[in-house]
User: Which sequence fits this backbone?
């Protein structure tokens, strides 16, 4: 479903991603862990081309692009396969919860408003927020805003959903409700990539754990292998510090 080959990304002299290559099967749930500054979020932003890689290639489903020759049309085609949930929600403040979900359906996919609204209400049901359909983000808690953002990502029926630290901006008491919604959408048909600091959640929900450090993939394996028998000292140090 997703293939990344020799991806590089630098900001000035700072190499943030160094020769990243990995493949993710359809329906896999992959948690990406690692210290701050290791390139995890930049990798997600490169996958949906919010950041343009310097070199390498990306393929999602049947759409493949080369960073060196990327066109606007290819960028749109690749991004159409993805949904993204951001750390700070990124909801439109002047639109209701329902309108935030239906915007991409009406404007991007040219779906009739009545049909888009029906889909939006079904998705709000799915994340437990139907009664907030006509509420604006300002009156929603952080957890509720993030649940709307998840519903918005689901609306376009993406091949791959990218979660960029979806709980890190939340108060501790709101983290559980968002993690529960993420758990509920794991259907092993949609591919999920999740950057997270929630180690126990990653271990519980993911099929596969990728540990990144210094812009590179250091370790890639099952939760059992990475958490219980890490092969690399860098992984062991990180997991030890995250438990303390």
Assistant:
């Amino acid at each position: 479903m997703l293939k990344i080959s020799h991806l590089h990304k630098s900001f000035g002299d700072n190499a943030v991603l160094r020769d990243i290559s990995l493949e993710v099967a359809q329906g896999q749930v992959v948690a990406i862990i690692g210290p701050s500054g290791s390139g995890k979020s930049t990798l997600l932003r490169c996958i949906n081309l919010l950041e343009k890689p310097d070199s390498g290639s990306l393929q999602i489903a049947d759409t493949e692009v080369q960073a060196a020759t990327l066109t606007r049309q290819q960028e749109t085609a690749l991004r159409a396969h993805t949904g993204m949930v951001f750390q700070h929600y990124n909801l439109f403040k002047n639109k209701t919860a329902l309108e935030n979900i239906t915007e991409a359906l009406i404007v991007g996919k040219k779906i009739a408003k009545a049909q888009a609204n029906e889909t939006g209400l079904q998705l709000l049901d799915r994340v437990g927020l139907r009664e907030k359909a006509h509420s604006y983000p300002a009156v929603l808690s952080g957890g509720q805003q993030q649940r709307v953002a998840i519903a918005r990502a689901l609306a376009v029926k993406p091949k791959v959903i990218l979660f960029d630290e979806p709980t890190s901006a939340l108060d501790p008491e709101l983290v559980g409700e968002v993690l529960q919604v993420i758990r509920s959408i794991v259907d092993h048909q949609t591919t999920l990539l999740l950057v997270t600091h929630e180690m126990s959640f990653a271990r519980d929900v993911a099929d596969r754990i990728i540990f990144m450090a210094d812009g590179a993939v250091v370790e890639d394996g099952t939760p059992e292998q990475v958490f219980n028998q890490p092969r690399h000292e860098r992984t062991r140090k990180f997991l030890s510090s995250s438990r303390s």
Observations:
- The chain is about 40% helix and 25% strand.
- The radius of gyration is 18 Å.
- The first strand starts at residue 2 and ends at 11.
- The mean pLDDT is 94.
